[in-house]
Structures are given as structure tokens and as C-alpha cells.
Write a structure and sequence with these properties.
It is a single chain. The chain has about 160 residues and is mainly β. Helices cover about 10% and strands about 30% of the residues. The chain is built from two helices and eight strands; from the N terminus they run αβββββββαβ. The longest helix has 9 residues. The mean pLDDT is about 85.
Length: about 160
Amino acid sequence: FYNVGEGKWGNKYTKNAASAMNGFDQSAAEEFMKYQTLVDIDNETLNGADAYKMTFKKLQLPATKAFWTINILDENNLIYSNPKNKFGFNNKTKGIKLQKDGSLILFLQNTPPKNQEPNWIPVPEGKFKVIVKVYNPGEDVVSGEWIPQQLEKIK
């Protein structure tokens, strides 16, 4: 799911009412894009009993004039509170480890992956949701040309 067209109120009253029901925090795509998923690449519900990876090939990170972030929401739609106090990942995260080919692999799992902790995003033991936010996005994000990478279950 993503928010193209939100934040432009106009006279689309049904859409405005639906946006208001979800809160008045909707912004125009040129200001903020938000993507969320509950499923992996195989359309299976995300669950902390499994481990996942999200791979961004070189130059596939979201274009932004500000920053982007990835957060995990628990079953109550709250940012996942975890013992490591690591509440997300963004383009300003310190110690990011790029692969030799310039790609970035993020690991979403309940325990830190060996030798990859900087690229680790903690997830709860049960079901969860992934939220990707891009603030002041580039044109390819606003146009829908860029979308976040899907999560792959690590076997």
C-alpha cells in the first residue's frame, strides 16, 4: 500500500472523509511518500518466527532531498519496542555495510544476524508490518517509478 494522491484535499469528499478517519497527517506525495506491507514476496504474512532480507541493488535506494526510513510496527500498529532500542533504519544510520557490488541488504529478524548488525532491523516474535517513508522524495518516487524492494524469506 502507498499514499499517492493523499494530502490534496480538494472536493473529493469521500476520499477526504476516509483520510480524516485515518488522521489528518496525510501529506502530498511531493512532500512525503509512505509504503507499507504485511506480506513477503511470496504473499505470506510477515512473522518474526521467520527471518527476511530486503535487497537494494546499487543505485536503487529511494531518491530524496531529505531522508528515508524503515520502521517495524507490531500487531497493535505501534513502532516495535525492542531490547536493543533500535527502532528503525534510515539513510543516515551509522555503520551501514554495503556489499562489494554496492548493493545494500537489510536483515529483518528477531535476533541480529552474524556480522551484519548495522544492517539489522529488529522485528517482534509475532506478526508485524513494514513501513517505508521517504521525505521530500525525488521525482522517480513521486511518479511511482520507484517502489521499495519486497521482503524475501531467508531459508
